[in-house]
Amino acid sequence: MKTRLFTACVLAAGVIGAEPLSAQHAQNPLVIDSMAGPDLFQFYCAPCHGRDGRGGGPVAAVLKTPPADLTKIAEKRAGTFPRADIIRFVSEGPALIPAHGTIDMPVWGPIFRSLDSSEARTRARIDNLVSYLESIQAK
């Protein structure tokens, strides 16, 4: 399920114009050259969460669980953006309770590591992506 969802997200990224194929990583077209948070978000997250992060991306309609509105992370936590928690969530996924099953969202840490062997670039991608999420919080 996660592999199909990841593939759908990446394919949808091309549909919404995240970044031209010519600008992508030469060895792997699923890795973009840019390490900038907004670019990473548009390529990897916007297919589900939408360009504005509110959950209305082109893949959202086919998901069992609607994507979260990522602009309200801080609002749901008394106005504080939980940076370490979000880094952990993006890197490792949520702590799962076996009876509750799995989540639909890809866990980006292992995906980034499988697409690019550099641990430093993986950490930078996640940090820059989370910084971007922090920047789009509703005021």
Short description:
The chain is mostly helical and 139 residues long. It is 45% helix and 0% strand.
What this model shows, in words?
It contains 5 helices and no strands. The protein has 139 residues and is mostly helical. It has one domain. The radius of gyration is 14 Å and the shape is globular. Mean pLDDT is 80; it is low at 11-25.
List the helices and strands and how they pair.
Blueprint: H1 2-15, H2 37-49, H3 83-92, H4 108-115, H5 119-135
Helix pairs in contact: 1-2, 2-5, 3-5, 4-5
Task: Please describe the structure with a list of short key phrases separated by commas or semicolons.
139 residues, mainly alpha
**Proportion of strand residues:** under 5%
- The end-to-end distance, rounded to whole angstroms, is 35 Å
What is the arithmetic mean of pLDDT? 80
DSSP summary: helix tally: 5
Low-confidence stretches: 11-25
Give me the strand/helix succession: HHHHH
